[in-house]
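Look over this record as teaching material.
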Amino acid sequence: QVQVVESGGGLVQPGGSLRLSCAASGSHFSIYAMGWYRQAPGKERELVASISSGSNTAYADSVKGRFTISSENAKNTVNLQMNNLKPEDTAVYYCRVWFSGVSYWGKGTLVTISS
């Protein structure tokens, strides 16, 4: 029984920063990769950033240079440092964890950027 839990969402003013964390637990197998997605009202869910077990990273063009993804393998945790936040970053952010042949989603954490 695998659990994926996000934390760190909240309300931030434009230009501010926020750090999201995601922890996976309950699996007997190694994690292949972890990633962050987001979904704003009326929009499709999109991949924001991902990191593989080999530490390869990828970012959406809209967040490149502002967001940084990192992992803590000993804790099965992935973090997303978000800087210079913009109103268009407002969304529910979801963590996804890949194992061999299967992936799991967290329930999401809300990030609101507003003045």
Notes: The first strand starts at residue 3 and ends at 7. DSSP finds no helices and eleven strands in the chain.
